[in-house]
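subagent[fold] <- orchestrator: predict structure for attached chain, return tokens only, no commentary.
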Amino acid sequence: MAKLLERPAVASPPPLPAKYRAACQLFPDDRVELIHGRIVVNDVPTWKHNKIVSRLLKQIVAKADVHDDYAIKPKEYAIAGVQAFLRIDPIQATAGLHSGPAPDGYTIVVNVALGNPLEMPAPWNLTLDTAQLNVAESSG
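subagent[fold] -> orchestrator:
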């Protein structure tokens, strides 16, 4: 005979940090995840992803990671062959695009104030509206 047990109460999930929500809004067509306290934005996987090397990596600078986001990650991403690295810095209100990966880092770096257009190189060949990337520092 089956015994009916009371279901345990399910606690509501903790509220998502504002920066995570902002990243989800900035990149609606990408997969946004919180991994070990970091916001990670990736393409939504398809059957082609196992053959594709990352072309563009996006990073939102956090106060705790400023040094890594400026001094360490660009060189590591270039060495890994990531074609372009887009750094969004809400603290300084800038967007920086690193392209032309080389063994010593990226050969081309373009920084603009958020709100100004940013020209994306091939294969994108488009102008990015950085006003859409303006994530307030105090939002998380």
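orchestrator: received. Logging for downstream: The longest helix spans residues 66-79. Strands lie at 30-35, 38-43, 56-60, 84-89, 94-102, 105-113, 117-120, 126-129.
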